[in-house]
């Protein structure tokens, strides 16, 4: 499928999505509450068959967080990026996708550990890299540590 065909098919299923094509990949932009239905459709619909999640991360924009999911269809050889905006930076939450792609289990724990995003219904939501007693989330822009080098 071309990017235009993907856009048409996704828009038919989810009319409220937006797109950004300024980078290497087609980006689908949604609110965090709409993530789960879109992700399930992208994975299970034979037209898309996005069967491989090859990157999951978070971006802190100070005013909000954005979850970023890079997806690939090994069958059709097309890829996209789904970006889900989390408006609540004080209590960021989003649905897990680790039951859809097993590789998300580690990535979601890493994002929780470093950004503080809680993945609802995740089977093992605890720190994975830092000590359980670590205070704060080091990749957040508001994180301060006495050992940080200030420029």
Kindly list the characteristics that best describe this protein:
151 residues, five-stranded mixed β-sheet, two-stranded parallel sheet, 7 strands, globular
Protein architecture, described:
The chain has 151 residues and is α/β, with parallel strands linked by helices. It has a domain at 3-91: NADH:ubiquinone oxidoreductase Nqo5 subunit (Beta Polymerase, domain 2, 2-Layer Sandwich), CATH 3.30.460. Helix content is 22%, strand content 28%. The protein contains 3 helices and 7 strands, in the order αββαββββαβ. Strands 1-2-5-4-3 form a 5-stranded mixed beta sheet, with helices on one face. The model has no long low-confidence stretch (mean pLDDT 94).
What's the arrangement of secondary structure elements?
Blueprint: H1 3-13, E1 18-20, E2 26-31, H2 35-44, E3 52-60, E4 65-73, E5 78-86, E6 93-95, H3 104-115, E7 118-120
Parallel strand pairs: 2-5, 6-7
Antiparallel strand pairs: 1-2, 3-4, 4-5
